């Protein structure tokens, strides 16, 4: 993941002129207290914009100043360090710059977060879309997905491959991958079309084994030289059990997989993200049951475990943010998976009930989470962390 860099943008702006663009007054300043204060000259804003005080702001070499549209009397220029400036314009600098500039610079339209992006000249050729070519692309990224031998986890792993990931490592308990996984792997290889790219790999392991998960993460890092995305999707659901007599061993088992396992998976990937310094995205699969309770379902262990996952994501997001590692949780509603099929296939009334609780009048499919997982994994969501 590339860091934010406005420093290289100037070389893409060019030196040509463009038609005059009327500038509307910024609404935030219409009734702002600064209306009663004599403002610095437009040249002041141009000068500080080109300096170190406000990196990435408007460049004076590409801005034409005009006073005809100004709502205030021009005043002598003030220095950038003048305390009056800092007090008057703190929090509204961007609005003031727009207000004082007769024409915004091309930088405003060409600014992008990827410092290596190359942009077409918007005045001479049609602009090149970047949303799916860059922001949503996972090109050369490496991912780890737990619980990905089948079902929801496998669907998410495939989505990452289709988004361009170099390799996606599927971690699950069985010693050998399922037939479903094998078919998906064959499909993924055809989608990629490039040898060594779009690989779907399988590793047998238990998410409840902290040391084992850490070693898996390290082995992936050693082999690939990076680890960028983590989807902690492994989870279990036990049968209905009265909360007043819920067995301790069963309660611990559910929390061990659904809560501890999610943490250990996130640790395995997060350690490698920190190791290589590229940042990354960790996606913890929670559940709507972490926020609400499904009435008539005695799932105190499952609900408790998923609630812990939601708070885990918020906590980890705050800790790892400085390293550009984002942590978010995803809370699916009623989805038809291998886990829920055990109930739905044998209880027809349950399917009807669950469907009636959704505004769409149906339950969801695993593939309907592909888009949101890809978004959270990619640069399209670089300002999203600690969210559910």
Automatic annotation (TrEMBL):
Residues 1-25, 60-81 are annotated as: Disordered. SUPFAM superfamilies: NAD(P)-binding Rossmann-fold domains. It comes from the Eukaryota. Residues 1-11 have a biased composition (Basic and acidic residues). The keyword Oxidoreductase applies. Transmembrane segments: none annotated. Keywords: NADP, Oxidoreductase. One of its GO terms (molecular function) is oxidoreductase activity, acting on NAD(P)H, oxygen as acceptor. The keyword Transferase does not apply. Belongs to the short-chain dehydrogenases/reductases (SDR) family. This is Sorbose reductase sou1.
